[in-house]
Amino acid sequence: MTRRVVVTGLGMVTPLGTGVDKNWEGLCAGKSGIGHITKFDASDLSSKIAGEVKDFCSEDFLDKQQVRRFDIFIHYAVASAKMAMEDSGLKINSSNCHRVGCVTGSGLGGLTMLEHYHLVMKEKGPRRISPFFIPGMIANMAPGQIAIEFGAKGPNFSIETACAASCHAVGEAFRMIREGVADAMITGGAEAVVTPLAIGGFCSMRALSTRNDEPEKASRPFDLNRDGFVVGEGSGIMVLEEMGQALKRGANIYAEVVGYGLSADAYHVSAPHPEGEGAVSCMKMALDYAGLRPDELDYINAHGTSTELNDLSETRAIKSLFGDHAYRLAISSTKSMTGHLLGGAGGVEAIFSVLTINRGIIPPTINYETPDPECDLDYVPNVARQLQVKTAMSNSFGFGGTNASLIFRAFES
After folding, report:
1. Range 5-248: architecture per CATH
2. Catalytic amino acids?
3. One fold for both 5-248 and 260-409?
4. Which residues, including other chains, have CB under 8 Å from residue 134's CB and lie 6 or more apart?
């Protein structure tokens, strides 16, 4: 018999704030978390804006020694995991520790620490490099440190599939529980690359919005006048459990995970397939996994980056797969408010999808001012919509043509 998997804990840090409730309130109010870059002098860059985390204090979640030793993306991941575990109420002890694991996603890992110690080496020499530099920045230290924090001795690894990384992480965690490899998983992702090198690199690709005079209006998915994405930072972590275990301990269940799809465009290093072929197969796989017909899906939290090519490709993919039902689907891009958290996006947006089901409100796509004739679906423009959603899909697509889709459903025992 196939094991069912449910969501019992949520935790997050984003440009909208620290904590799930603060994020959800900002999201439903159509609040933008994007502003001018304050972490470094961005005056020489064509894009001077980002979604920075503003209210986070590392010392609220880690001791001072850990704060010094680990890159900020690990701070975000551990903090989100602590919130999710507290929310879940799951206790890990000697009787279950080998059945609880952790898998997270990150696109670039500890780039902040890498840039810092590169300067240290150049200016002060190699002897001044911290012995904690390597373990403090590698991507798999996020799930590693979470496991250490909670004593989770089950499956533990990190995924680096660009902007699909944490969507893949949640999907793989779901699959491990479903197949009996684990009974519970701490999963999601984190990213913190508002750094000179990362922003400069994306500027060189001409991938970022240059709407520097109106940062809160810069991320405008599906709008005709979109001009690029905005880098965001933060983390989204959830606790997944086998349904029977969750029910037995009286856990609060937010939603059920029912579908997971993954595919490749096999087309281009950074551009999506123009007709969204990989996205179509990915979404179809998730629907098939869930045993759902296309017309049974209610909502899509779109990848929706605010780039010309991605938004058009994703729209075409949705039309191709869903046919006439595409025009009845509610679709929104929460990146319009958080910016694009890259490898951390999938974890955050999976949580938003779960909350859409759990709380009966669809978050909007803000800054949708001028419709694009080729992007003509219902993107829930500008204002949140009260609607009972039973099934929701979350899409994440990344450089290299890697794609991931998750499907959540309202829980019924």
Report:
1. 3-Layer(aba) Sandwich (3.40)
2. 163, 303, 340
3. yes
4. none
Hey, what are 172's tokens?
């793989």
Boundaries of every domain in the chain: 5-248, 260-409
Read off the tokens for 154: 């089950």
Class of the CATH-defined domain 260-409? alpha beta
Helix or strand run (H / E) with residue 150:
helix 141-150
Q: Is the full-model pTM beyond 0.90?
A: yes
From the list 349, 334, 358, the residue with the least C-alpha distance to 405 is: 349
Cα dihedral 279, 280, 282, 288, rounded to 10, equals 160
List Cβ neighbours of 21 (8 Å cut-off, separation of 6 or more). Answer: none
- The tokens 């997971």 sit on which residue? 260
- The burial class, CB within 10 Å (0-12 / 13-18 / 19+), for 130 is middle
Average pLDDT for runs of 10 along the chain of length 413: 94 98 98 98 98 97 96 98 98 98 97 97 96 96 98 98 98 98 98 98 98 98 98 98 98 98 96 96 98 98 98 98 98 98 98 98 98 98 98 98 98 93
DSSP class of 220: -
Q: Are strands 299-301 and 330-332 parallel, antiparallel or unpaired?
A: parallel
CA terminus-to-terminus distance, the chain: 15
Structure tokens at 202: 């994306």
